[in-house]
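[retry 2/3] NADP-dependent oxidoreductase domain-containing protein: previous attempt timed out, resubmitting with same input.
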Amino acid sequence: MAIPWLSAQGEDIVPIPGTKRGRYLEENMAARHLNLTADDLNNISARVS
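[retry 2/3] NADP-dependent oxidoreductase domain-containing protein: success.
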């Protein structure tokens, strides 16, 4: 959920995930399609702040 959360922080924020294995790359690519609601974003932001 870090990739979609970071992507939602603004157009000037670009997540750059690293990986050593192909399956992790697939997970990172699939995360681009996860849509977080406003409530999801608020909950995540409250927990990381």
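[retry 2/3] NADP-dependent oxidoreductase domain-containing protein: The radius of gyration is 12 Å.
[retry 2/3] clearing retry counter.
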